[in-house]
Amino acid sequence: MAVTIKDIARQAGVSPATVSRVLSGQTEFYSEKTAKKVKKTAKKLGYQKNTAAVELVTRRSKVIAVIVSSTQTNFSDQIIDGIQQEARQHDLNVIILYAGEKDPQMERKALETVIERSVMGILLVAVDLNPANEDLLVNANIPYQFLSITLKNRKLPFITSDDFQIGYQATKYLVDKGHSEIGFAAADLNSVTGQLRLDGYRQAMADNGLQLNSAWVLGGDFAYEDGVNAMKQYGREPEVTAVIASSDLAAIGVMNQAQDYGLRIPADLAVMSVDGTKLCSIVRPQLTSVTQEFFEMGVRGMQRIINQPAKAAKSTFTPFKIIARQSV
Amino acid sequence: MAVTIKDIARQAGVSPATVSRVLSGQTEFYSEKTAKKVKKTAKKLGYQKNTAAVELVTRRSKVIAVIVSSTQTNFSDQIIDGIQQEARQHDLNVIILYAGEKDPQMERKALETVIERSVMGILLVAVDLNPANEDLLVNANIPYQFLSITLKNRKLPFITSDDFQIGYQATKYLVDKGHSEIGFAAADLNSVTGQLRLDGYRQAMADNGLQLNSAWVLGGDFAYEDGVNAMKQYGREPEVTAVIASSDLAAIGVMNQAQDYGLRIPADLAVMSVDGTKLCSIVRPQLTSVTQEFFEMGVRGMQRIINQPAKAAKSTFTPFKIIARQSV
DNA sequence: TAGTAAAACACAAACGTTTGTGATATTGAT
DNA sequence: ATCAATATCACAAACGTTTGTGTTTTACTA
């Protein structure tokens, strides 16, 4: 039913081969005159190319797949923006798939969907694959890149912030502001990311000769609720005078709960968040944060895919900085 | 390089046809025994189906495309969740494409990408196509559905909230609370959505015998900044005692700016937002909102696509309700 | 004007799958 | 044991492109 290049060929009085070369932007094998003619009849007939056929014969596609864990946090927008920008410059299409929340089933489904379509590259943001899915990805022979996550498996290339340094610098920042009882909240302590931040936090405490109470470190899943729960643990008269929350939303959670307890921020309690999304400047008091360069992660991820097809790249860090606002 | 059904056929000693029927879940034309054998060798060889080939011959695909305007607001997540739920139940894949911010170029690109792939259906959330792109979509002969937007062109099916009623009920709610000077802020007054809400607002004012000052209605683009700008217009000693902001973010904008002016909410100024995303309960004071059922929009949109292939559906409304929190 | 090189084009195979139909094997009834 | 009916399978065409190579036309040189 749909119009094909054969229809165009017939109408324009040329061969399908010529139509193909004209329409796919090749420069050889035809004259300007026939090119004009072909393009005109293509437009007249309302031709839409059949990508399935194209990909079948060329065995490659111009789409980049982004698989994101439908995360509680909201930084993925920034990463995707970076990806889009780079994609646009290279005339690539990007499609986004949600892989749920630690849901191996959905992850597998998403992976299969994009592998079956033999996309040009796969960017995984904040998703931690189980071994089976990891195999699936690796064996697909499609360039891939993990973003905003640090993996146990060091063979897999990832681009993220240096989580140890995030923990360290955040802590140091608070110490420099005079705090010595510092909480560490809402990070997923089972994840490498959470573990590294915790390590950094511990190291910074130690380096400054500060004792730390294990009750000050409270795990979670980077979610808003984890922030409020942490604050509930700290209590109405918290021992800590400052807390590092491992996401913006979590930080808001601790702020809200603290305020419900009648605590004033930052006077009675300083709170520091990590991520630095727009949320930080929208809430009151505005959140002082460790701000990550998510956009840049997206950009670099795409560049990796484009420049190093299949070749395994090393993992790298993207810079971060501490932005002082009002909450400490 | 990749393993095909021919490879499997050879290894298993059957024909490609049989392999195809086994692997694609058909029930006829083969015995249990050969099915077992085929599946085993398929797994052994690490077979991945080539979707391009499948779609080429079957001329249909199991993917639903969601095109979203990379909106300032954040309700699209909820819509997408609804879509995903329904997709999962019908074993469909969903891919998401960003179409920028009122960017006809990107919209066209996104449309072409999905049309060329002849997806099974196209869901457009909060995107308002220009006429050219509208044609592109309509002529593609693929089921489509607009979500969370009301269109000038009534021929195009959309599912959204009744924006007139949103404006009307929000206003009425405030009037019932004793307000008579009510601002209307941050809606895009060039959009049908904004216009309808404004109409509803006006009607409610009139129905209650209230005069309205044209200075009270301030346009925008549903963004945070539009909220703060609106509040700046209202000034330190605003004539209005309540304002309806057309998005959660915008509402937060007016709250913040109002507080910067030393106004207390809701004592000095009541603010009401429309959308009702999680943001409302995260900010302090919590936002009283007109809460839309975005998830439901996604669900219904998918159902439309699934049940009414190609047939033009009527536009319908999804319910909304007013949720009282702290800001009025 | 004849000859030749290059430009313009057409042919046909190939990509990996699905599916209608024809061929063969199996089963059951008599 | 014979036959029909059915179950199991293989053949081959088709989907819409791309692309290597062969063929014709054009343009240029001498």
Strand tally of chain A, please? 12
How many angstroms does the end-to-end distance of chain A come to? 65 Å
Report the structural category of chain A: alpha/beta
Low-confidence stretches of chain A are none
Helix content of chain A: 40-55%
What's the helix-strand series of chain A? HHHHEHEHEHEEHEHEHEHEHEHEE
Question: Could you tell me the radius of gyration of chain A in angstroms?
Answer: 25 Å
Give structural notes.
The first copy, chain A, is of the alpha/beta class. Chain A has 3 domains: 5-49, lambda repressor-like DNA-binding domains (434 Repressor (Amino-terminal Domain), Orthogonal Bundle), CATH 1.10.260.40; 61-161 and 295-318, 3-Layer(aba) Sandwich (Rossmann fold), CATH 3.40.50; 163-291, Rossmann fold (3-Layer(aba) Sandwich), CATH 3.40.50. The first copy, chain A, is built from 13 helices and 12 strands. Chain A has helices at residues 5-12, 16-23, 32-45, 51-58, 76-89, 104-116, 131-139, 163-176, 192-207, 224-234, 248-260, 279-282, 294-307, and strands spanning 63-68, 93-98, 121-125, 144-147, 158-160, 182-187, 217-219, 242-245, 270-275, 288-292, 316-317, 320-323. In chain A, strands 2-1-3-4-5-11 form a 6-stranded parallel beta sheet, sandwiched between helices. A 6-stranded mixed beta sheet of chain A has the order 7-6-8-9-10-12, with helices on both faces. The first copy, chain A, is elongated, with a radius of gyration of 25 Å. The termini of chain A are far apart. The relative contact order of chain A is 0.12. At the A-B interface, helix 4, helix 5, strand 2, helix 6 and helix 11 of A face helix 4, helix 5, strand 2, helix 6 and helix 11 of B. The first copy, chain A, binds a DNA duplex (30 and 30 nucleotides) through residues 2, 4-6, 14-18, 20-21, 24, 26, 28-31, 34, 49-59. Chains A, B: GO terms for molecular function: DNA-binding transcription factor activity; transcription cis-regulatory region binding.
